[in-house]
Give the backbone structure.
Amino acid sequence: MTAERHQTSPASQRVAVYPGSFDPLTNGHVDIIARGARLFDRIIVAVLVNLDKRPLFSVEERVETAREVFRDEPKVEVEAFDGLLIDFARRHGATSIVRGLRAVSDFEYEFQMALMNRRLAPDIETVFMMPAEAYTYISSRLVREVYTLGGAVQGLVPEEVEARLRRKFARE
Ligand code: PNS
């Protein structure tokens, strides 16, 4: 290990990017971000603009919601991004990408992305984290489906997200 790695200047801060669509942010995401915040000095939640999909929430809504959820967490920042993830990571001085792994079924897609990102940027490491068991079955897609069909999502998403869902579907 070089002496530089022991510097305590801001340049030596450990910065991670946690990318995703977050449509919407779930308690599984929140759990991973909390775990990441214990390992890194800063964790930047990078919200994909998704030009090719039709998201339930606009990118502005997704960014705003995540900022509300993490308003008391100084280590957590939230930004929108498009283009290549590794370019976003570089611009923000991040050397790690955090991704959650819920089940073996996530592995193939995650493995492909991690290896592609490593090929594009060998200096950026992907770090996989497992959420608490209680969140292993939660996905944004299922939350959208359940809520759209009239089911309850209490406990699966942060309160700020539930409030936005109620407003969007006029279920006050
Ligand atoms: O939560 P998601 O929707 O599975 O997140 C996917 C995401 C945002 C991580 C991925 O689509 C991504 O990184 N997109 C940015 C474009 C990019 O860099 N593609 C090459 C990476 S393999």
Residues 19-21, 48, 84-85, 113, 116-117 surround 4'-phosphopantetheine (CB under 6 Å).
